[in-house]
Automatic annotation (TrEMBL):
Species, as recorded: Halomonas cupida
Protein name as it appears in the record: AsnC family transcriptional regulator
An annotated GO cellular component: cytosol
InterPro entries given in the database record: ArsR-like_HTH, AsnC-type_HTH_dom, Dimeric_a/b-barrel, Tscrpt_reg_AsnC-like, Tscrpt_reg_AsnC/Lrp_C, WH-like_DNA-bd_sf, WH_DNA-bd_sf
Domain of life (superkingdom): Bacteria
Length: 159
């Protein structure tokens, strides 16, 4: 399916405000309501728009303490990485994890009930011989400056 500038504008707007009215959406992209809404239905039918949802702030529902952790493993082989990554997949408190190059092996975001709960989690990892953590560095989040964008921005597409 080929998308034009109107389609991309529709996607951008709807990704930020799925509750926008048909007339406001049409006005925002300089089309009349009927052609604009036909485009939305076509995007839905093609599976490009999968649905509409609300962004829920989990920190309001259940306050958590965000902690970023740098992890360096003792062994740098496929088995060690696989074993550690499986642990991360099975740890609910870990909400993000990326493997990185340059001094450490992983950056992890932990959403803990408290600093004490975080430390108990790390202590458990350290005493588990098969995990193989060489060292770790803990960074307590004091303020969130910017969150990842939730919306689709057509300017981010590379053509």
């Amino acid at each position: 399916m080929k998308l034009d500038r109107y389609d991309l504008k529709i996607l951008s707007i709807l990704s930020r405000d799925g509750r926008i009215t048909k007339s406001r959406l049409a006005e925002s992209i300089n089309l009349s309501v009927s052609p604009c809404w036909e485009r939305v239905r076509r995007l839905e039918k093609a599976g490009i728009i999968e649905g509409y949802s609300a962004r829920i702030n989990p920190r309001v529902l259940v306050p958590k303490t965000p902690v970023w952790v740098q992890i360096e493993l003792k062994q740098h082989n496929a088995e060690s990485f696989q074993r550690f990554e499986q642990l991360i997949q099975n740890t609910a408190a870990v909400t993000e994890c990326v493997a990185v190059g340059g001094g450490v092996d992983y950056l992890i975001k932990v959403e803990a009930d408290s600093i004490d709960a975080y430390q108990r989690l790390i202590d458990g990892w350290l005493t588990s011989a098969d995990i193989g953590i060489e060292r770790y560095f803990t960074y307590i989040v004091t303020k969130t400056v910017k969150r990842p964008a939730q919306g689709f921005d057509s300017d981010d597409l590379l053509f």
